[in-house]
Amino acid sequence: MEVTAMHFRRNAAEKLNDDRLQQALKKLQSRFVDSRATALAELPNFPEIREAAAAIRQRAIENLDAYLLRFEREATARGAVVHWAEDIEDANRLVVEIARRHGVRKAVKSKSMVTEECGLNDYLASVGVEVLETDLGEYILQLAHEPPSHIVAPVVHKSKEEIADLFEARHRRPRNTGIAAMCREAREVLRPGFLAADMGISGANFIVAETGSVLIVTNEGNGRLTTTLPRVHVAITGIEKVVPTLEDASTLLRLLPRSATGQSITNYVSILTGVRGKDEADGPEHFHIILLDNGRSRLLGTELQPMLRCIRCGACMNHCPVYQNIGGHAYGWVYPGPMGSVLTPAFVGLENAIDLPNASTFCGACADVCPVKIPLPDLLRHLRRRQVERHLRPRSERAALRLWSWAARHPAVYALLTRAAARLLHRLGGKKKYLRHIPGASGWTRGRDMPAPSGRTFRELYQSRNSK
Amino acid sequence: MSARDRILARIGKAHNSGIAADVDGEIRRRQRGPLPPLAGDLVKRFGERAANLASDVAQAHTITEVPDLVARYLRERQLPMQGVCWPALAPYGWPAAGIGLEARAARGDDMLGVTGAFAGIAETGTLMLLSGPETPATVSLLPETHVAVIESTRIVATMEQAWDRLRAERGALPRAVNFVSGPSRTADIEQTVTLGAHGPYRVLIVIVG
After folding, report:
1. What angle do helix axes A136-144 and A160-171 make, rounded to 10 degrees?
2. Which residues touch B90 (CB under 8 Å, ≥6 apart)?
3. Cβ–Cβ of A160/B190 closer than 8 Å?
C-alpha cells in the first residue's frame, strides 16, 4: 500500500475538520472502549491471563525460527504448501504464480491487513485476476476505492448514508438505508461471488506450530466461506503470528475478541489444517500458506522487538486520544494508532514517518490496554530518540533547540531572555490579564487562553523575597 | 540462497544463541494458560451463554423428540421445512414431523441445515464442529437456518477440554475445526450489530439428554 505518512500533519488537520468523520469517531467509545471493559470484567483472573498471553507471544518471538520450522513441517505433512516471502514483491509474485498454476480467474478474499501491506488486490487486478472482498467493511472500501481506517472495523469512518450511496451506485437496486436491509443486500450480492470463486485468499490471526494450522476469527461467515468453497486457498500471514500450541491459541483467544470488540468470542473461530480429504465434500484441494517477513525479522534483537508480540486487536487505537480525534487514514499506511506509529516507521523507514511517534501525549492508555503488554510509549520514545540521532528532525526545530541549549548553558543570557519575555507577555496581557493570542504561537493559543505572567521572573521574585 | 534461507538466517543471527530451545518438548507439554473459574451446571451455562449470543436454545430428552421440536420451531417462524443434514442425523423421523432433509453437503440455495456437534463449550456457549466426509462444513454455513443437535454429555467447560477430547477421540485435527457461537453477524455499518451476514441468520441448538 502506498505510504502517505509523511503528510501526517496535513492529513491530521484535514481529519480534525471533517465533520462526518468526527461524528463517526464518536462511536468508538461505546462500541469499543466500554464493551472491552465489560467483556474483560467477566474474567476474574484477567491479569493472570494477560501475563500468560504476553509470555506466550514472547516465547514465540524468542524462538521464532524453531516454531516456524515446526509449523512448516506439520503443515506440509497435512498437504499444505508453505512458501516464504522476504517482502511484498515476493508475496505478490507467489500469489500470482499460484493463481496461474491453478487456472484461477476469480478470487474471493476475507479481511487481511498483511494483504493491504502488499497491495495485493491492485496487483492481482493488474494481472487479470478478479478479486472480490467479502468482509462487509472491506467490500464497501473496495467499492469506494479507499483503504481501511482501522484494523478491526475498516469502515468506522463511514456513515450509513455514504454506504447506501455506494450500494445504490454499484448494485443497481433501489436504495436501502436500513442497516439490516443493507446487510441483506450485501449478502445477496456477494454470495454468487463465493460460489463462483476459484481461489480464496485469507490472512491468519495465528498459525499453530503444533498442528500446522491456520487460525482465523470472523463474525460474518465470510472467512469460512472463503476458505471452504473455492478449490484453492491461499493464506498469507506475517512470520510473527506463530503460536506454539492449540492451548496457547485458546489463551490468546480469551483476550483477542474481548480486546477488539468486547465479544467473549468471535462468532466463528476456524482452525484449518491441510487440504480436503479423499471423501470430503468441501474444503480446498490446494492449500498454500505464505509466510511474509517484510521487515519483521529485522526487529528481532532490537528495542522494537516487543512490537512483534502484537495480536492485532486494535485496543490501543480505540483508547488513543489522538486516534479518537483523527481516525486511521491520517496515519498514512496500513496500521494506524499507537501500533501503527511503531510499525509504520519500522517497516517503511523512520524518515518516511517521522511525525507518527510524535503524535502521542504518552498518556499510556495504549500500554494499559494492550493484551500482550507491549510497552508502546517506550517504543515511541525510542523512535523519537532515533529521529534525533539520525538528524531527521526539521532544521528549524534543531536550530531552535540548539539556541535554547546555548542560552540554558549561559545563565546570564538565560536570565536576560526570560526577564524580557516575562515583561513582554505581562504587557500583552493588558487589563484583562489573559493572553488570547500570542504571535508565533497561534497554534497553541487558538484553543487556549494563557494567564498573563506578573511581569517579573521567578528568580527576581525569589531574590526580592529573600532580601526582605 | 532462497527467501526461506535468508529469513531463517536473519532470525538466527538476531537470536544470538547457539542453543536451540527445546521447542518440541515445549509443544509436547501443552501447557494450559490460566482458565477462568467455571462453577455449576455446565449444560445450564452453555444454554445461557448461547442464548446470550442470539442462538435459540431448546432441550429434548431423546433424539426422537428432536424432529417435532424443530418442526414447531420452523412453523412458528414460517420457515422452509426442507434442507440438508449430516448423514448421522438422517434416520430420526424427520419426514413424519413434516421436514424433508437430504443427507448431503449444502448448496448456495439450501435454506435449512441440520448438524450434530463434536462438543459444546460452556464458557462461551460455543459449538465445536469438525469437518469430515460425514460432517460437511457447508451444512452449518450456507443455509439461512442452522439446527445443531448436541448431546448434553458432550458439553465441556472450556476450549482446552475440547482439545483434549479431540486428541483422545480422533488423534489428528480434521481439515476444519469450526467454533460457532450463534448466527452470523456484522457491525461494520455504523458499529451497529446486525444478525445474519454471510452465514446463517439463526441458529437453533437442541441439547439432547
Report:
1. 70
2. B101, B103
3. yes
Neighbours of A103 (CB within 10 A): 10
Residue pair A342/A305 in contact (Cβ under 8 Å)? The answer is no
- Tell whether A76 lies on the interface with B, counting CB pairs under 8 A: no
Q: What share of chain A is helix, strand, coil (3-state, %, to 5)?
A: 55, 10, 35
Secondary structure of residue A37 in the 3-state scheme: helix
What mean pLDDT value characterizes chain B? 94
By CB neighbour count within 10 A (0-12 exposed, 13-18 middle, 19+ buried), where does A44 fall?
A: exposed
- For chain A, say whether B26 makes contact (Cβ under 8 Å): yes
Contact A317, A339 (CB under 8 A): yes
CA geometry: angle A147, A332, A168, nearest 5 deg: 25
Query: pLDDT tens for residues B184-207?
Result: 999 888 888 899 899 999 999 999
Among A330, A8, A339, residue whose Cα is nearest residue A152: A339
- Of A157, A134, A159, which Cα lies nearest the Cα of A146? A157
**What are the cell numbers at A235?**
493464506
Backbone angles phi, psi at A18, to 5 degrees: -90, 100
Helix (H) or strand (E) holding B39: none
- Within 10 angstroms of residue A229's Cβ, the number of other Cβ atoms is 22
Asked whether B120 and B154 are in contact (CB, 8 A), the reply is: yes
pLDDT tens digits for range A414-455: 999 999 999 998 988 888 888 888 888 888 888 889 899 888
pLDDT one-digit tens code per residue, B86-138: 999 999 999 999 999 999 999 989 999 999 999 999 999 999 999 999 999 99
Residue type for position A213: S
Residue A87 CB contacts under 8 Å (≥ 6 apart), including other chains: A292, A293, A294, A295
pLDDT of B72 > 70? The answer is yes
Start-to-end CA span in chain B (Å): 60
Which chain B residue has the Cα nearest residue A80? B175
**Sign of the dihedral through C-alpha B163, B164, B169, B172:** positive
Say if the Cβ atoms of A225 and B141 lie within 8 Å.
yes
Looking at residue A84, the DSSP 8-state letter turns out to be E
**Does A285 contact B at CB distance below 8 Å?**
no
ipTM: 0.96
Q: Identify the pLDDT of residue A430.
A: 83
Query: With contact defined as beta carbons under 8 Å apart, do B127 and B162 qualify?
Result: no
Nearest-angstrom CA–CA distance, A202 and A205: 10
Say if strands A80-85 and A199-202 run parallel, antiparallel, or are unpaired: unpaired
Pair type for strands B155-156 and A213-218? unpaired
Alpha carbons A340 and A352: distance in angstroms, whole number: 13
User: How does DSSP classify residue A298?
Assistant: G
Nearest to A136 among B141, B188, B200 (CB): B188
Q: How many CB atoms lie within 10 A of CB A432?
A: 9
One DSSP character per residue, A207-266 reads EETTTTEEEEEESSSHHHHHHHSSSEEEEEEEGGGEES-HHHHHHHHHHHHHHHHS-SS-
Identify the residue whose cell numbers are 506463530: A242
Give the residue from A298, A338, A295 showing the smallest Cα distance to A316: A338
Type of residue at A251 = T
Residue B48 · residue A336 · CB < 8 Å: no
Q: Considering CB atoms only, which of A140, A191, A224 is closest to B108?
A: A191
